[in-house]
Amino acid sequence: MTYPLHCACRLVLPQYATYKEKIRSRLESFRAKVETRNETEFRLSWAFGWLSISERNDHIMIEGGAADATGLARIKDLLATAFKLYAKIDAPQIVWTGDHAHDPELAPFRLMVVEKVTDLNARIKRVRLHGSDLSRFEEFGNMHVRLLLPCLAVPNPVWPVAGPDGLTKWPDPDRKPISRVYTIRAIDTVASWVDIDVVTHGTTGAGSAWALSAKPGDQVGMFGPLGRPINRNAQHYIIGADETGLPALARLLEILPETATGLACIEVATQADVQAIENRTKIDVEWLFRRDAPAGTSLALSDRLIAETWRNDLDCFGWFAAEDAAARRLRTHWRQDLGLSRDQTLAAAYWRRGTTGLMAG
Ligand SMILES: Cc1cc2nc3c(=O)[nH]c(=O)nc-3n(C[C@H](O)[C@H](O)[C@H](O)COP(=O)(O)OP(=O)(O)OC[C@H]3O[C@@H](n4cnc5c(N)ncnc54)[C@H](O)[C@@H]3O)c2cc1C
């Protein structure tokens, strides 16, 4: 594989030793191949590109290469985000040199237009968004996006551009849209659309309010893809979701190996909220109804998965996405009670009762 595009950045980081392991671990967690890892140098590669961080006498040299502009933007994003998260003590100012260094276009951003809105059931709106050049949203093994939404306070947002570090820069911070994380339920890169299934829960939440009033022609920003790829090669899966995790769970059942076995448990309000899911696997699908209980108040879903036997005789993977309390309960069971590792399980809080914009970033 040749990587014709290149980026570089030189940083002076006096405290680098105190956080370098966190940076390495974060970058590796994106299913990277480790090419070099020694005291002073660290090099990773993916199908789309490579990056390296090397310690010189008085500075750190960061470099990356990629096959195309999308890949290069991804490399810059991975590196700049890792340093932004963990190098706060040194407050580094990343300014890229090399290919596409001063490109104001923010690679992960697309301006989308609502094409149609369908009522999937009483609580869920399927919103089809049309945009151009959506291929990156099929890459990198991720399936979530950050929707950038107009709201009452900012009905005409100003959309983001790329800063010198390749990350998001807001040209007018007073006219920032509201951001909420959603899953791409379906994507067609040829016809250039994505479907997002939005759970509506009144007009207090900006995301829910937007979906309730969305109509063809409305503009919305889309940023991504987000998240980490999950293990798609296990033999046995124990997975669960409420309505917010249902789009991701349904996509998993479409892409996991046909031979995969296990249990997929889904919590919805009533029988009328059950959806048809294309399940290509041998994983049993079970629906749980919370009936009159408000969303996020029942632990029946996490309890059901806790009761399911973890198959140590098979390569087993646990995945869960729902309200925070349920996710925490299951994560504690998997990680602490069963002693399973991060590579074997992912129990994510997709929302938290009483909290606005969890994970909105
Ligand atoms: C990786 C990821 C993927 C996600 N994918 C989807 C998806 O495909 N579809 C989807 O609908 N959601 C999805 N979510 C969850 C969604 O981001 C949150 O529900 C978000 O809080 C909704 O924003 P909001 O503006 O409507 O409400 P907020 O402003 O965030 O919250 C306002 C109030 O509403 C409550 N609230 C938030 N969500 C719900 C809910 N679902 N039911 C009842 N009350 C709620 C909050 O607790 C708060 O009290 C995902 C989250 C993550 C992290």
Give the cofactors and ligands: flavin-adenine dinucleotide
Low-pLDDT segments: none
Number of helices: 6
N-end to C-end Cα span: 35 Å
| CATH level-1 class of the largest domain | Mainly Beta
Oligomeric assembly: single chain
- Main pleated sheet: 7 strands, antiparallel
Secondary structure: helix percent: 10-25%
Write up what this structure looks like:
This protein is an alpha+beta fold and 361 residues long. The chain has 3 domains: 5-98, Alpha-D-phosphohexomutase, C-terminal domain (TATA-Binding Protein); 109-226, Elongation Factor Tu (Ef-tu), domain 3 (Beta Barrel); 236-351, Nucleotide-binding domain of ferredoxin-NADP reductase (FNR) module (Rossmann fold). The protein has 6 helices and 20 strands. It has helices at 16-28, 69-86, 206-213, 246-255, 300-307, 324-337; strands at 5-11, 33-37, 41-46, 49-55, 60-66, 97-98, 109-119, 124-130, 144-149, 161-162, 168-169, 178-183, 186-188, 193-199, 219-226, 236-241, 261-268, 282-289, 316-323, 345-351. The strands form 4 sheets. The chain has a 7-stranded antiparallel beta sheet with strand order 12-9-15-7-8-14-13. A 6-stranded antiparallel beta sheet has the order 2-3-4-5-1-6, covered by helices on one side. The model has no long low-confidence stretch (mean pLDDT 94). Bound molecules: flavin-adenine dinucleotide. Flavin-adenine dinucleotide binds next to strand 12, strand 14, helix 3 and strand 20.
